[in-house]
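fyi for ur records
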Amino acid sequence: MSDYQTIDIRDWKQTGDELKREIDEAVKSTQSVVIRPLPNKLVMTGPQYDMLQADPEMRGFWTSQERVYITPYNAMDVVIQER
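which gave:
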């Protein structure tokens, strides 16, 4: 997925807090000199999801299995895809 409203982190090697900081920075970078729409989708692998699922940034809805990832700038739908 290469559209500007998707952040694909499947190839990122960071873990834990470092991974969360990198996600925040990737979102923040969309608002630099040339402002682009904020991303609305975050694509990650199963292991990345497992690592982040208990964090407060990962939120779910009690009526479904859908998840969103919250940053200081936006909320993104979480999509799990393997490479």
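DSSP finds two helices and five strands in the chain. thats all i got for now
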